[in-house]
């Protein structure tokens, strides 16, 4: 007997593909399909030979969690400044928080869980929102 939405993803079957950021590769864990698009979960790792660049942005999400499996990554967050995450570190990125990646180790691997499974990324001029312009 099977249960609707059950999924088990194994490292031995892992397949990584380029995705949202050209300097990362993404391994889909099957959660998006299992939850009918409500949640997406993937392992992200640095893509060898890709140039890093990061524009300040924010995501239209209701939940976003990043857990560092290996290496390190550094972000700049609106109202928080620089935050360096290392293996075992976890961050909850509240909906709409402006941020940008500052850098990462060549061996970085992350687990990211996001709701909803499909979300928009909006690039902005700065991590810190403008004082009076009303820009999101």
Please give the alpha-carbon distance between the first and last residues: 48 Å
Q: Largest sheet, described in full? A: 6 strands, antiparallel
Number of strands: 11
Helix content: under 10%
Mean pLDDT: 89
For the biggest β-sheet, the strand order reads 1-2-3-10-5-8
Strand content: 35-45%
Secondary-structure element order, as H and E?
EEHEEEEEEEEE
**Rg over C-alpha atoms, rounded to the nearest angstrom:** 16 Å
Poorly predicted tracts of residues: none
General shape: globular
Total helix count? 1
Q: Helix/strand/pairing class, anyone?
A: mainly beta
What features would you describe in this structure?
- It is a single chain.
- The chain has 136 residues and is mainly β.
- Helices cover 3% and strands 41% of the residues.
- The strands form 3 sheets. Strands 1-2-3-10-5-8 form a 6-stranded antiparallel β-sheet.
- Strand 6 and strand 7 form a beta hairpin.
- 16% of the residues are buried.
Task: Set out the fold topology.
Elements: E1 17-18, E2 24-28, H1 31-34, E3 40-46, E4 57-59, E5 63-70, E6 72-77, E7 81-86, E8 90-92, E9 99-104, E10 109-115, E11 121-123
Antiparallel strand pairs: 1-2, 2-3, 3-10, 4-11, 5-8, 5-10, 6-7, 6-9
Gist?
Helices cover 3% and strands 41% of the residues.
Name its key features:
136 residues; mainly beta; 1 helix; 11 strands; globular
């Amino acid at each position: 007997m099977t249960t609707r939405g059950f999924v088990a993803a194994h490292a031995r079957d892992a397949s990584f593909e380029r995705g949202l950021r050209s300097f990362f590769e993404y391994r889909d864990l099957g959660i998006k399909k299992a939850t009918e698009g409500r949640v997406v979960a993937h392992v992200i790792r640095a893509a060898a030979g890709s140039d890093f660049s990061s524009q300040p942005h924010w995501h239209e999400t209701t939940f976003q969690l990043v857990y560092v499996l290996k290496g390190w990554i550094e972000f700049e967050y609106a109202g928080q400044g620089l935050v360096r995450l290392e293996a075992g570190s976890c961050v909850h990125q509240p909906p709409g928080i402006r941020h940008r990646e500052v850098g990462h180790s060549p061996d970085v691997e992350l687990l990211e869980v996001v709701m909803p499974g499909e979300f928009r990324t909006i690039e902005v001029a700065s991590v810190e929102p403008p004082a009076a312009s009303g820009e999101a």
